[in-house]
Amino acid sequence: MKVYRYEENPLITPADVVPHHEQFEVIGAFNAGIAVYGDEIIMLLRVAERPISPDPEKVLAPVFNTDTQELDLIELRLDDERYDFSDPRVIRNKSQSATFEYLTSLSYLRIARSKDGHHFTVDEKPFLYPSQKLETFGIEDPRITQIGDIYYIYFSAVSPVGVGESMVSTTDFEKVKHHGMIFGPDNKDVLIFPEKVNGKYYALHRPTTKSTGNPEMWIAESDNLLYWGNHKHLIGLRSGMWDGGRMGGGCVPIKTERGWLELYHGATAEHRYCMGAVLLDLNDPSKVLARSNKPILEPEAEYEKNGFFGDVVFACGAIVDGDIVKMYYGVADTSMAGCELSLQAILDSLEPLE
Fold this sequence. Notes:
Elements lengths: L3 E2 L18 E14 L2 E12 L6 E8 L4 E8 L5 E2 L5 E4 L8 E2 L2 E9 L6 E2 L15 E10 L2 E10 L2 E9 L6 E7 L3 E6 L8 E7 L9 E6 L5 E8 L10 E4 L4 E2 L4 E8 L5 E8 L7 E4 L10 H4 L7 E9 L2 E8 L3 E8 H7 L1 E2 L2
Antiparallel strand pairs: 1-26, 2-3, 3-9, 4-5, 6-7, 7-8, 9-10, 11-12, 12-13, 13-14, 15-16, 16-17, 17-18, 19-21, 20-21, 21-22, 22-23, 23-27, 24-25, 25-26
């Protein structure tokens, strides 16, 4: 697959974002939702900030307190044998190794704006900040679907009771209306289609179970964008392939003459994240027509291979201009990058399902 990576990549790095909190450092500005608003391209960044501990023997875990509307910093000693600090992203209680007890950073959403799609300016203040009980560990990985004049923004809401998908809406990227959690824990990678199909709204989602099943892609339908049902399993993991470890939706589905094109991420068991595509029927998106056997984008550039969590390309938004797909994607769980691909080439690369 021929890919044109922007010369300006990475487009936004943590160094481009001033911390919102004193005595914090920005460790990630990535996995942004993408929208066109007026004459601007909006990049709604996930900004991850980590408290700087004054004591090298201790780590601070940020937790939003809904009673005080302030951040609490939980102080833990690195030699505390009850906890596992080996993963820089999370702090695990060794007695509950399958889950984490705290995150080492707090994520919120911040707008970056561009006229040309290559050079972005980051707003001074957060656009969305944790405010609800289901967001006390932060809000992450937004996607944006425009339907009419309304932009629906949905994101992972993280708290001690799990990770679910919450939604707000806006018409001006200033005022927002909160709609609550639309997919309960544990669920991520929700993508709402940009128009109704046969009178129904459709959404992709990625539930994760602790009993049986794998982190795979599902589809659901709704009459009102708030209550989702008729859930169906859409595509699964493929052992030994680029999407054999986990997968999830990437960009809002793109309507083409051949069907709904979904650009999704897949990872190997070794956590190497690539981008591929799946084609869904125009009139019945629960029907899979074709799928990528090989990735359309792999972590090859230095900024994709090295970072907070390396070997990751993770697209969250695309703008289609004729045959050009302008895809914006997170790199190495650290920064944002952009690239262009041919829509026709992506469609032609897909292997039809028998």
